Amino acid sequence: MKIIVVEDEIRICEGICRLIEKIGDNYEVAATADNGEDGLKLILENSPDIVITDIMMPGMSGLEMLAELKKKDRMPKVIVISAYSEFSYAQEAMRLGVREYLTKPITIGELTQTLSNLADEISDDNEVPETLSSLNNIFLGIINGIIDVDEKLVQYMDNRHGIRRDTVFVELTAYLGYYYEENVESVKKTIGKILDHIDGTEYIILELPKEMSLLALIYKCGNLDEMERHIKTSIQRNPLSMRKVCTGMIRAEGLENIQSSYRIINSYLHWNMIFGDGVIITFPQVTEIKVKKCEYPVETENLMKTSLYSMDKAATLNSVKKFEDYFFDGSLYNPQVIKEAYTRFIWAALGILKEINEFEQIAARQKQLIERINEAKSSGEMRGILDMVFGSLFENRKEDENLGLTVKRTINMIHEFYKDGITLDEIAGKLGITPEYLSAQFQKEMGLNFSSYIRNYRIGKAKLMLVGSNMKVYEIAAEVGYSDPKYFSRVFRQVTGQKPDEYRKTQK
């Protein structure tokens, strides 16, 4: 599998190439470039399977390079590299269709998994479908883009099924989301009953498990307007069987427009998160909705970040609830704006968790979380995404009751005397045990050593002061137990990748 790496920092570029060599012989770095302009030329010349690119580079940026590739319809599979402080740029990469991204520093485990994901996608793209013949399979083939609507197919559909080139279809789509396996049969049965009560209607219901949806294609009926009104009323009268189902309806004029119409209505289903169960999203009416301007709740994000630094469970969950309630208070906000806000909020949380070494518990879910936001159609799904981050974080975290008395007392002393530069030996002496035993017990129960814990605790306190006060850096250094401001700055940079002043600027 051919890979091109576009990265302006030589050290990082060489590191990525070395990681790829270690991962396996099936991956080959065909070329590297240190800017977007050279990267664009190499990609157009070599047609790689995968491109790994930084976002910020001199000259043409990684985003500009990707935008040019998209214009030329030459977009390969892409892995974007970014820092957590570059959220807005990473968000733009998502708009360009990038679904794989890594945050610095890159580990071999993260890169291995990401390359494996893309290799699976490439393999799926290259699969050749079997010949399709039944009406169900023909419609599935059209929807999935593996059957072209040519003259031969049009003639076959007319002769065999009475479906002509100019037949007007009504498409009723039902998105079940992560309840698909559980509810697909009951929802399919409900839709069938609704359509069976309309005289003269002929339809077929397609199962689309990859999209977690059902699609009813109605190709024969009487009055279209009356039929659509009947469907809307019937779904509103079936709140239990259609609960947690996002429905949409659109007309498609002719066989060749079935796929594009389905894609259009599917792209608007996320309006369900505003209107809720029992409301069918119809096109083009949905395009006429007047939305309220939505400002991102910066103060709520800052509350969340502050509580995460101190791992205050109650305060963190309170800020998350406040964030949720802000968007789902009955106001007509644009769902895409809500999704972008959720991505920004979670991106900020993951950045904090990585800095304070709580990231490993959910690192593997990073890509999944952003994908679920992009795919979400309902408010319930959006709330579930936040729960994936914050609920599992505190569920998996070792609470005080799971710690032994020795480690509890050690943590209490660190929290009380961290400003005074308390050491492992001093705590061991106060507890009447050997430093070696305390070190081993602390590592076993906490999952990290004493030095890392007290360093992270001090830096966490320093972050709060940098963001929440106007204190000078040397004052903050002294406040958290560092007598030498230069040494404090060096440690702070080792932990966060930024100097204290830089961190303050990016967080305010």
Short description:
By secondary structure, the chain is an alpha/beta fold. The chain is built from 23 helices and ten strands. The chain has a five-stranded parallel beta sheet with strand order 2-1-3-4-5, with helices on both faces. Strands 7-8-6-9-10 form a five-stranded mixed beta sheet, sandwiched between helices.
Provide tags for this entry.
Rossmann fold, 10 strands, five-stranded mixed β-sheet, single chain, Alpha-Beta Plaits, 56% helix, 508 residues, alpha/beta, 4 domains
Can you characterise this structure?
The structure is a single chain. The protein has four domains: 2-125, Rossmann fold (3-Layer(aba) Sandwich), CATH 3.40.50; 135-284, 2-Layer Sandwich (Alpha-Beta Plaits); 298-396; 400-507, Homeodomain-like (Arc Repressor Mutant, subunit A), CATH 1.10.10.60. Helix 1 links the parallel strand 1 (2-6) and strand 2 (28-33). The longest helix is centred in the C-terminal third of the chain and has 21 residues, at 335-355. It has helices at residues 10-23, 36-46, 62-71, 87-95, 108-125, 135-143, 151-161, 180-196, 224-236, 258-268, 272-275, 298-309, 313-327, 335-355, 366-375, 379-396, 405-417, 424-431, 435-446, 450-468, 473-479, 485-496, 500-507; strands at 2-6, 28-33, 50-54, 77-82, 100-103, 168-175, 202-208, 213-220, 246-253, 280-282. It is α/β, with parallel strands linked by helices and 508 residues long. The strands form two sheets. Strands 2-1-3-4-5 form a five-stranded parallel sheet, sandwiched between helices. A five-stranded mixed sheet has the order 7-8-6-9-10, with helices on both faces. The model is unreliable at 127-132 (pLDDT under 50).
